[in-house]
Design a protein that fits this description.
The complex is a heterodimer of chains A (about 525) and B (about 525).
Chain A lengths: L5 H18 L6 H24 L7 E9 L4 E7 L1 H20 L11 H20 L3 H10 L1 H11 L4 H31 L9 H4 L6 H18 L8 H8 L2 H11 L1 H14 L1 H27 L4 H21 L3 H32 L10 H4 L1 H14 L6 H16 L1 H26 L15 H19 L2 H18 L12 H6 L2
Antiparallel strand pairs in A: 1-2
Helix pairs in contact in A: 1-2, 1-4, 2-3, 2-4, 3-4, 3-11, 3-15, 3-20, 3-21, 4-5, 4-6, 4-11, 5-7, 6-7, 7-9, 7-10, 9-12, 9-13, 10-11, 10-14, 11-15, 12-13, 12-21, 13-14, 13-19, 14-15, 14-18, 14-19, 15-17, 15-18, 15-20, 15-21, 17-19, 17-20, 18-19, 18-20
Chain B lengths: L15 H23 L2 H28 L12 E4 L4 E4 H21 L22 H8 L7 H17 L3 H19 L6 H33 L4 H10 L4 H18 L8 H8 L2 H26 L4 H23 L5 H22 L12 H25 E3 L2 E2 L9 H4 L1 H15 L5 H15 L3 H27 L8 E2 L4 H19 L2 H9 L6
Antiparallel strand pairs in B: 1-2, 3-4, 3-5
Helix pairs in contact in B: 1-2, 1-5, 2-3, 3-5, 3-11, 3-14, 3-19, 5-6, 5-11, 6-7, 6-11, 7-8, 7-9, 7-10, 8-11, 9-11, 10-11, 10-13, 11-13, 11-14, 12-13, 12-18, 13-14, 13-17, 13-18, 14-16, 14-17, 14-19, 14-20, 16-18, 17-18, 17-19
The chains are: A mainly alpha (about 525), B mainly alpha (about 525).
Chain lengths: ~525, ~525
């Protein structure tokens, strides 16, 4: 706040770190791992410092603003609000965990271990930049730039079909990204003819007058890009492929952090820049979101590949998040934001635990497992915890957010809320079936050799487990940060919570004698 | 007895003070021809290289000086400069910008021409072009290590023509410039040291089709003269604005002139020469041609249509929309099936012509409050970005070799990322720039032409361009996949270590692509400062 560019330093630390890693000698991988871990922990420290200095309710903070490309009206402008801060924290928390968990995953890749961790840190830096950007142009540049490290992480270090998965991922993202480019260009044209002159600053763009049809077209460009990223049905098909081919760590970064850009972008850009168009599109989007919830859940039930299963659960969960955003109630939107954080944590746990399991057995198919609980109790216990958090068991963090989303949606549309609730039932089915088939029952002969988790693996998962349980009981600190921002955003959209059917003041009187 | 009709002869005024960069280049080219006759063979190479680079460098310095001294043109506040040489050459903001970019790119191209280490001590050009391929004479020439140092003056003549082409302010001068730039290029295309037959085939094809398109251009000039009664763009503009009769003449003339110019920018459906010529020509010439010809031709296209036919833009804009769409589709879609890296880059160059035409068809000359990226500014920037990346990419192609010379078949590029991560990374970077990924110059270029088109009301064209960008991205990514994620088939390609010349060119191209992608402000300002065309 005192003029020190906290956010620049925060995003630049991992980026510089990735260059340092590339400069390290390749002969021995160990220093690279430790350096990567140290840098990501340093980034986490910086992120925590920002969180401590953040004043909930004071709007956009830690602002930095410099003119970048004057002809385009693009600025190097950073800042965090409650939603941005939540996702910055998520990114900063998950990266060290992923690095610790992926300790040996870079060994058998196409390129060196240094490169593996360098891409990861590069991805972290770009993702932090995306969540901090308050200029549409800067956001777009960073948004597209995240594709490159992710592309190389999937294509360089994944399973046998990795090349196909990487290209599919890239093309889907580019298609969405370039449609968004058309809208970004359109925003420029709109702002250039306004009284502000060409500008991409979010704070100014949200005041630029825009005709109804222009706003709707531009909204569509942004929304489709974010829907591909999120991913929503019907543009989700790249996710199962990417998640099943990438290493577990990459999948965590992809699903838990990068995909959040999609939902983050919907709140930050779709809602704030195009309030009218958002209201116009919300019925269709909620319908698509509900469909995603059910479709993702149904397909997850039918999966035999553990990683594809988790990918489909994410499609389902992202449906909840999108539904909450476009239900336009304080509760549902706050729930969605909290859900982004919690889903990130819980999916990270799922991907990492199953990743450890898959590395041990060498197969990702559920039918190859049975009775692992007996030989690896810690592993199976953590899988159960992660699974329960994915199905939103009360007492775990995701329950709070899912409940808020559903409660908020209920006041907006009873049908959507009821249908989406079916998704919770299906969630119990896909998680518990997977757990039952892999962990319980007699130990299969070919599963007897599965070792339990080592110290490093437990150390990587411990913080995640602590967050899942801790935030389940005490989500208030995060909600305190999120709620004011959500209220501001919904105010911008021009909607207010529907009034309760029963007047609040009437209740006590009616109950009296 | 008095002479009643005394012949009135006033000598033309030539403004040497603004035209001298052009004259320096032509002078250096002529001096290069003399060097061929006067300097003994062993020393010619060095003398020619120094002369060419020196001449181009001096012209560049002159261009900067001319640019600094341009004054605001009479009657048009947004344009600076003057029409010199009795209305034949316009030296204005866009002209000097194009001159500057052309000269910088020509200098680095000449450095590529001068590369000798890759071919084992000789240049990549035929030792004796007159010797038939496969004959004793050719073998003798190659064992003696003969080389043609005429390529340097030829390149200088071409550069001179390229400088005159976008500056020409009357159609006849423009035609002369077109021929001056084309003839040396036809020759250069046929001079490859390896695979000489395909190189000669390229030259013949280029020459025949080029001559054909020149004829179209000339016929168009004649028709437009018939309509306007003037060769100068200002005179044509006046006739168009006054709506003198004979619209059919004007329309036919415009269409034919467009054919000639669109041929040079390799826009579909006048693109069919591009893949063959790009593939057959010596790779350094391909890079030079791809970058510099496109810049010069787009400069001329913009000048003719914005200045001369500006008043008739509602007549030609629909045509340009169609051409832009066809060009993008043809370039992007056919590139998908290419198996030769040079042919792929040729189709990529066609696709880029399409993207440039999107900005052109937008015809956005600035909003009321004087802000906004104009069509001219965006195209100038795009050309700059594209020029550096193109020369860099072709320079990389010269380095990937096997026993038969350059290994241009894409299957030979598999696994290059293992063989030489740096070179493959550099090539991937250029491909990402072509694809328009942020943080590269290509992204800013695409952004600016799209925004100019959108501001000019051509948003459907922008949507098509965006979709075609995805298709184009696919074939660029395919090459990246091939280099980084595929295993080499058989014995992989080798990456030859070039001399400092090629290495330096690649370094400059990478630096320009990165800087124009991250901090494009200064160059954009320069392009904006170029202002409008003088009339």
């Amino acid at each position: 706040m005192s003029g020190f560019p906290w956010l620049t330093v925060l995003a630049a630390t991992p980026l510089v770190g990735s260059l340092v890693l590339l400069a390290l000698p390749r002969r021995d991988g160990n220093p690279a791992r430790l350096v990567a871990l140290a840098i990501s922990l340093g980034t986490l420290g910086l992120a925590l410092a920002v969180a401590v200095g953040y004043d909930a309710g004071a709007g956009m903070q830690f602002r930095e603003e410099h003119s970048w490309i004057a002809a385009f009206g693009a600025h190097y402008a950073l800042g965090v609000d409650g939603i941005g801060l939540t996702l910055v924290l998520l990114t900063a928390v998950l990266t060290p965990i992923v690095i610790l968990a992926s300790w040996h995953d870079g060994d058998n890749g196409r390129y060196s271990v240094n490169t593996f961790f360098a891409w990861m840190l590069g991805l972290e830096g770009l993702a932090l930049g995306v969540f901090e950007a308050t200029d549409v142009f800067l956001f777009y540049v960073l948004f597209e730039a995240t594709l490159i490290p992710l592309y190389f992480l999937i294509g360089g270090y994944g399973g046998p079909q990795r090349s196909y998965a990487a290209v599919k991922f890239l093309l889907y993202s580019l298609l969405g990204g370039l449609l968004m480019l058309a809208s970004v260009v359109g925003l420029y044209a709109v702002s250039a003819s306004s009284s502000f002159g060409p500008t991409y600053l979010l704070s100014q763009l949200s005041q630029v007058p825009m005709s109804e049809s222009t706003g709707r077209w531009l909204f569509l460009g942004f929304f489709i890009a974010f829907a591909v990223k999120a991913p929503m049905w019907p543009v989700h098909t790249w996710l199962p492929d990417a998640a099943s081919e990438a290493t577990p760590g990459t999948s965590v970064l992809l699903v838990s952090v990068l995909d959040k850009i999609g939902t983050f972008g919907m709140i930050r850009f779709c809602l704030q820049l195009f309030p009218e168009a958002s209201r116009w599109a919300s019925p269709v989007i909620i319908a698509l979101a509900v469909f995603s919830v059910l479709y993702g859940a149904l397909l997850a039930v039918g999966q035999n590949d553990i990683r594809r299963l988790i990918a489909y659960t994410s499609v389902s969960h992202f449906g909840f998040i999108v539904m909450g955003i476009f239900a336009f109630t304080t509760q549902s939107a706050a729930g969605s934001t909290l859900y982004m954080f919690n889903h990130g944590i819980s999916t990270a746990a799922l991907f990492l635990v199953t990743g450890f399991l898959i590395t041990r057995r060498g197969s990702k198919f559920i039918t190859d497992y049975g009775g692992v609980q007996r030989v690896a109790p810690v592993l199976s216990g953590l899988l159960l915890l992660a699974g329960l958090s994915s199905l939103s068991l009360p007492g775990l963090s995701t329950f709070v957010s899912e409940f808020l989303v559903l409660a908020g949606t209920f006041t907006h549309s009873v049908t959507a809320a009821v249908l989406a609730t079916l998704g919770i039932v299906l969630a119990a089915l896909y998680i518990l079936l997977m757990y039952q088939r892999t962990m319980t029952g007699p130990v299969r002969a070919d599963n007897a050799g599965i070792r339990d988790l080592g110290v490093r693996e437990v150390a990587a998962l411990a913080p995640v487990a602590a967050l899942i349980i801790g935030l389940g009981f005490f989500p208030q600190p995060l909600l305190d940060v999120i709620n004011p921002t959500v209220r501001d955003t919904l105010h911008q959209v021009g909607v207010s919570d529907p009034p309760p059917d029963v007047p609040v003041s009437a209740a006590p009187r009616g109950a009296g004698p | 007895m008095t002479v009643l009709a005394q012949p009135q002869f006033t000598s033309p005024t030539i403004e040497y003070s603004v035209l001298y960069p052009l004259l320096i280049v032509f002078g250096a080219a002529a001096a290069g021809v003399l060097v061929e006759t006067l300097v003994p063979r062993p020393r010619r190479y060095l003398v020619q290289v120094v002369l060419a680079v020196g001449g181009l460098g001096a012209a560049l310095a002159g261009t900067v000086l001319v640019a600094l001294n341009l004054s605001v043109a009479a009657g048009n506040v947004s344009a600076r400069g003057m029409v010199a040489a009795e209305g034949a050459v316009a030296v204005d903001g866009p002209t000097v910008y194009i001159w500057g970019v052309l000269l910088v790119l020509s200098i680095i191209s000449v450095l590529l021409f001068a590369e000798r280490r890759l071919e084992g001590g000789v240049t990549a050009f035929a030792g004796q072009a007159a010797a038939l391929p496969g004959t004793e004479a050719e073998r003798e020439a190659s064992t003696r290590g003969v080389e043609h140092s005429e390529i340097f003056p030829l390149a200088l003549f071409a550069v001179g023509g390229m400088m005159l082409f976008p500056a020409a302010s009357d159609l006849l001068t423009m035609f002369v410039a077109l021929e001056v730039l084309s003839l040396p290029l036809y020759l250069l295309c046929g001079l490859a040291r390896r695979r000489r037959l395909i190189s000669q085939e390229a030259a013949v094809k280029y020459f025949l089709l080029g001559a054909f398109s020149s004829a179209f251009f000339l016929y168009g000039i004649a028709l437009v003269y018939g309509y306007a009664g003037s060769f100068t763009l200002a005179g044509i503009d006046r006739a168009v604005s006054d709506r003198v009769g004979g619209q059919n003449l004007l329309l036919a003339g415009m269409a034919l002139i467009a054919v000639g110019l669109l041929f040079k920018v390799s826009a579909a459906p006048f693109h069919s020469w591009t893949p063959d010529v790009y593939q057959g020509a010596p790779t350094s010439v391909t890079g030079f041609m791809a970058a510099c010809t496109k810049i010069a031709a787009f400069g001329a296209l913009l000048r003719v249509f914005f200045v001369g036919f500006g008043g008739a833009q509602w007549d030609w804009r629909p045509m340009m929309w169609v051409v832009a769409i066809i060009t993008m589709v043809v370039g992007s879609v056919i590139a998908l099936t290419q198996t030769d890296v040079k042919r792929m880059l040729a189709y990529s160059s066609i696709a880029h012509a399409g993207f440039l035409l999107v900005g052109f068809a937008g015809v956005f000359t600035g909003s009321g409050n004087g802000t906004g990226v104009t069509s001219l500014q965006s195209i100038l920037f795009y050309l700059t970005a594209y020029g550096f990346a193109t020369i860099g990419a072709f320079a990389v192609v010269t380095m990937v070799r096997d026993a038969g010379g350059e290994a241009t078949h894409l299957s030979r590029w598999a696994g290059l990322g293992r063989e030489s991560p740096v070179l493959a990374g550099v090539f991937a970077f250029f491909l990402l720039a072509f694809a328009g990924i942020p943080m590269t110059s290509g992204f800013i270029g695409k952004w600016s032409v799209f925004s100019a088109a959108w501001s000019g009301g051509a948003w459907p064209l922008v949507v098509v361009a965006v979709i075609m960008s995805v298709v184009a991205a696919f074939f660029y990514v395919r090459v990246i996949v091939l280099m980084f994620f595929s295993d080499p088939v058989g014995e992989g390609p080798t990456v030859a270590v070039p001399s400092a010349l090629t290495a330096g060119v690649v370094a400059v191209a990478v630096a320009a692509t990165a800087v124009l992608g991250i901090l494009p402000g200064p160059v954009l300002d320069l392009a904006q400062h170029a202002g409008a065309f003088v009339r």
